[in-house]
């Protein structure tokens, strides 16, 4: 690998790629805010035990995919392969699990797994996630799912995406189901892959996640948990579906969705699509009532999901438009002083503005066009003397001379600024009218 190339499985986010990525995160940030979620940021590396305990010592992530190393102090640390564990660790170590619950949390950031890079999947990848910490009610499950569904809708990628839903039951349900799976797979032990034979001894639910073709054939005929649910677990699942109907979230049952670790319970779900080839899951989650306790905190029911930003970005129909600045163009170096003052005035008013650092008028105008400027504000010697500027609309080539007090209204009228600035202009005009009215009143008095 050349030192001048990105490491395999990583990539630079520049231009269109960054705008897609940024749009996904900002949309999720907005929607989760509507649902009352607070954003947390946790370190991108944790003590290795945080993930080994929460992902399972025998999981592929722990045994094959984690970036784990010993730091200079001799401690084993791991780049985070996911962030639910980090959020729960933060809840516990900051003493928040004993305070007012539930906590509703959103996060966004990079994760790291050493796996074979493929379409939409990288060794440094990015995730968004939502967690409701400290709520045991099925309404919480449905709401966090509805939040995820609204993000997909806001991104315009919900078409062709399906919510698949299952239940993992409560502890008695899973114990009965585990016994049924052991009985079933033991009878077919010689047909299982080597990995699944090991899982049969330690955690038979993990066989249901196997990618081996022979295992998949056996899994298709295996018992489902629905045959082993307690009445309480069955009612919880029914309540989740009832609330999803109220939120207007469509779903279909998939009894093969499982989570292999004991701290998972009740709801398990995935938003899936066939628009990304075989790797069809774009958002997945469930209830993990035992995780906080597993990490040393008090018993705390939790539910949440995570989604891959890279995959969601791929599904976007269009790339968000880049910011189109207004270019301030001094005719010569002599006008650079007034040009910089104007530049900062525009930025203070919320207008993206930029200036070329050198060159004659032609060169600076070429720069304005190259960066996609909406308009050029040209300042020459005569304009400085008269207190005006030339506003050239770079979309249609029209231009006009405008006095400085009328610059913002002129930009708004030309359609080269956003609605926020137009509102600001209206407020300025109303204020000016008010001043005139006051002056008239004082004259009459």
From TrEMBL:
A Pfam family annotated for this UniProt entry: HGTP_anticodon
Family annotation (SUPFAM superfamilies): Class II aaRS ABD-related, Class II aaRS and biotin synthetases
Record's catalysed reaction(s): tRNA(His) + L-histidine + ATP = L-histidyl-tRNA(His) + AMP + diphosphate + H(+)
GO biological process terms, semicolon-separated: histidyl-tRNA aminoacylation
Residue ranges constituting the Aminoacyl-transfer RNA synthetases class-II family profile domain according to the UniProt record: 1-325
The protein's Enzyme Commission number: 6.1.1.21
Binding locations of L-histidine: 82-84, 113, 127, 131, 259, 263-264
Record CDD domains: HisRS-like_core
Coiled coil: none
Main location (coarse class): cytoplasm
GO molecular function terms listed in the Swiss-Prot or TrEMBL record: ATP binding; histidine-tRNA ligase activity
Annotated localization: Cytoplasm
EC top class, as a word: ligase
Signal peptide limits: none
Subunit text: Homodimer.
Family as reported in the entry's similarity comment: Belongs to the class-II aminoacyl-tRNA synthetase family.
This protein's name: Histidine--tRNA ligase
Organism expressing this protein natively: Teichococcus coralli
């Amino acid at each position: 690998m050349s030192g001048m190339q990105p490491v395999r499985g990583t990539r630079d986010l520049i231009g269109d790629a960054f705008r897609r990525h940024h749009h996904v995160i900002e949309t999720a940030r907005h929607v989760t805010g509507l649902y009352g979620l607070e954003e947390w940021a946790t370190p991108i590396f944790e003590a290795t035990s945080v993930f080994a305990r929460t992902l399972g010592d025998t999981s592929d992530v722990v045994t094959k995919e984690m970036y784990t190393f010993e730091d200079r102090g001799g401690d084993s640390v791991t780049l985070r392969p996911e962030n639910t564990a980090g959020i729960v660790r933060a809840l516990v170590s900051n003493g928040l699990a004993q305070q007012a619950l539930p906590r509703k949390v959103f996060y966004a950031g990079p994760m790291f797994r050493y796996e074979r890079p493929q379409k939409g999947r990288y060794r440094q990848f990015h995730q968004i996630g939502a967690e409701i910490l400290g709520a045991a009610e099925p309404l919480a499950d449905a709401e966090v799912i509805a939040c995820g569904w609204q993000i997909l809708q806001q991104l315009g990628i919900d078409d062709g995406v399906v919510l698949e839903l299952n239940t993992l039951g409560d502890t008695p349900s899973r114990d009965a189901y585990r016994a049924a799976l052991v009985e079933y797979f033991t009878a077919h032990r010689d047909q299982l892959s080597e990995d699944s034979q090991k899982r049969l001894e330690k955690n038979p639910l993990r066989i249901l996640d196997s990618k081996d073709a022979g295992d998949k054939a056996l899994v298709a005929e295996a018992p489902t948990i629905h045959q082993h649910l307690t009445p309480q677990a069955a009612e919880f699942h029914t309540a989740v579906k009832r609330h999803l109907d109220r939120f207007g979230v469509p779903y279909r049952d998939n009894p093969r969705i499982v989570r292999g670790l004991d701290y998972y319970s009740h709801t398990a779900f995935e938003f899936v699509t066939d628009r990304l080839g075989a790797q069809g899951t774009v958002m997945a989650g469930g209830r993990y009532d035992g995780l906080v306790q597993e990490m040393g905190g008090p018993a705390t029911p939790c539910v949440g999901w995570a989604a891959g930003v890279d995959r969601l970005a791929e599904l976007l129909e269009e790339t968000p438009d880049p910011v189109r600045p207004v270019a301030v163009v001094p005719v010569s170096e002599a006008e650079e002083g007034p040009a910089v003052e104007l530049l900062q005035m525009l930025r203070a008013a919320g207008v993206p503005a930029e200036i070329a650092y050198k060159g004659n008028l032609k060169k600076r105008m070429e720069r304005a066009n190259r960066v996609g400027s909406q308009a050029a504000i040209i300042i020459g010697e005569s304009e400085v003397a008269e207190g005006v500027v030339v506003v050239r609309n770079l979309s249609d080539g029209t231009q006009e001379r405008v006095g400085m007090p009328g610059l913002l209204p002129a930009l708004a009228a030309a359609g080269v600024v956003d609605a926020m600035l137009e509102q600001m202009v209206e407020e300025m005009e109303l204020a000016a009218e008010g001043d005139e009215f006051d002056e008239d009143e004082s004259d009459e008095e």
